[in-house]
Specification:
This protein is of the alpha/beta class. The protein contains 13 helices and 21 strands.
Length: 438
């Protein structure tokens, strides 16, 4: 029997889909090449923005047609969208063809739900409370050089625009020895890049085998030294209020931790940051950037910026542009505020009209595009260490990622995937780097 998993949202969802695939393959299922070939379709949902929910509902319309053609098809919907209050009932009413509905806290029960569905029973179970992180689940890793490792789940920040604490629960950290054991095993399996996952990795609060407290800086340092081989340890996502000098020192001192930090700012306006409940000012954020660049002048910084938050004025937006100009992000994820049911911001006055938000969004994108082009041009002539992650034999073109997170393309006579090589940057095209293998 064959399965398909459709994943929406963040890296956490991608990794959880690997666990869902592991559960399926433990029961003898194999991946299908097309949705129409599948005996089981799992839709792992996201609800962080409205357009994600709209895409999911649109895809369910397509799956409904497949169900009409194959009455034995099992359809499962899980993840953040399913975890929202009342969402399971709404899904059952709108899409009665769904066989299984479950949330974020009971992913480990998917195998049991699947057995019931295959026996002809419908399952709808969304646990309202989070428990201890489930350990020992089978994982079907995706192909490539990178592997994900959860270090914690949930979030305690309650930013006023965000549904994550409501659908992911409060923060729970895994024991450090379990994290380190995962990393060792993955390196032994041949992965060359490990990405530590959490909604706010900087607030990791775990214990070691002896019950001693372990913070994120200590965990990161240990993760970078579990093996004598060469590899990279990345992490996402960080919160500026918790991004400590100790973490910066570990990154600077550890050869296996790339000098690349994803540090979401969301806004450059103190007034908007306060309304977002971000718990830092623009000056605080820029102070973290200065601390990073003091020890690592060439560090790559990426971030998130949201425009159109309720009450955002033109001056607030100009503050954001000034922050972006100051930081000079190597990569920036830009968003228009999306009203989310159950959040504080959803009931705020002064919601920004769509036309104004779109205009600001385009101005932000234009600024970041120009910065990206300048940073890419400045890399020409430099020799960069690259971890190769893809190769096309027909064109003899290899792709890799630099320590600072930039993608670079270069010619090679043989496949180098999984290897570290040095590449001289020769030119750029649309901010993409191209070079020659040394």
């Amino acid at each position: 029997m064959l399965y398909r998993i459709v994943t929406y949202g963040c890296q956490m969802n991608v990794h959880e889909s690997e666990k869902l695939a592991g559960i399926l393959e433990l029961r003898g299922f194999l991946p299908a090449e097309r949705d129409s070939d599948a005996d089981v379709i799992v839709i792992n949902t996201c609800c962080i923005r409205e357009n994600a929910e709209n895409r999911i509902l649109g895809n369910l319309g397509f799956v409904k047609k497949l169900k009409e053609e194959n009455r034995n098809l099992i359809v499962a919907v899980c993840g953040c969208m399913a975890q929202q209050d009342g969402a399971a009932e709404r899904l059952k009413a709108r899409c009665p063809f769904i066989n299984i509905i479950f949330g974020t806290h009971n992913l480990a029960e998917f195998g049991a739900y699947l057995d019931k569905a295959m026996a002809g029973k419908k399952v709808s179970e969304v646990w309202p409370q989070e428990g201890e992180p489930a350990e020992g689940l089978p994982v079907k890793r995706g192909e490539g050089v990178n592997a994900w490792v959860n270090i914690m789940y949930g979030c305690d920040n309650f930013c006023t625009y965000c549904v994550v604490p409501y659908v992911r629960g409060r923060e729970r950290s895994r024991k450090s020895e379990l994290v380190l054991d995962d990393i060792k095993r993955l390196l032994d399996e041949g992965f060359k890049e490990i990405t530590l996952l959490g909604q706010n990795v900087n607030s990791y609060s775990g214990t070691d085998a002896d019950g001693n407290y372990v913070n994120f800086a200590s965990l990161l340092e240990q993760a970078a030294n579990v093996s004598a081989q060469k590899y990279r340890v990345r992490f996402t996502t960080s919160h500026p209020k918790d991004f400590s000098d100790e973490v910066i020192r570990v990154i600077s001192d550890s050869p296996n931790v790339p000098e690349f930090i994803h540090l979401p700012a969301q806004s450059g306006s103190d007034r908007i940051l306060k309304a977002m409940n971000r718990k830092y000012t623009a000056a605080d954020y820029l102070g973290r950037i200065d601390a990073i660049k003091k020890l690592m002048p060439d560090a790559g910084i990426s971030g998130d910026i949201m425009v159109g938050f309720p009450g955002e004025t033109e001056e607030d937006f100009l503050d954001t542009l000034r922050l972006v100009e100051s930081v000079r992000y190597i990569n920036l994820f830009t968003f228009i505020y999306s009203k989310r049911r159950g959040t504080v911001a959803a009931s705020m006055d002064n919601q920004i009209d769509r036309i104004t938000a779109l205009g600001r969004f385009q101005r932000l994108v234009n600024l970041q595009t120009s910065i990206g082009l300048e940073l890419a041009a400045a890399a020409v002539g430099k020799t960069l260490e690259v971890l190769c992650d893809a190769y096309t034999a027909k064109t003899r073109l290899s792709r890799g990622k630099t320590a600072s997170g930039k993608i670079i393309w270069f010619k090679s006579d043989t496949e180098l995937t999984g290897q570290f090589v040095n590449v001289n940057v020769t030119h750029v095209k649309n901010s993409n780097l191209y070079g020659e293998l040394i």
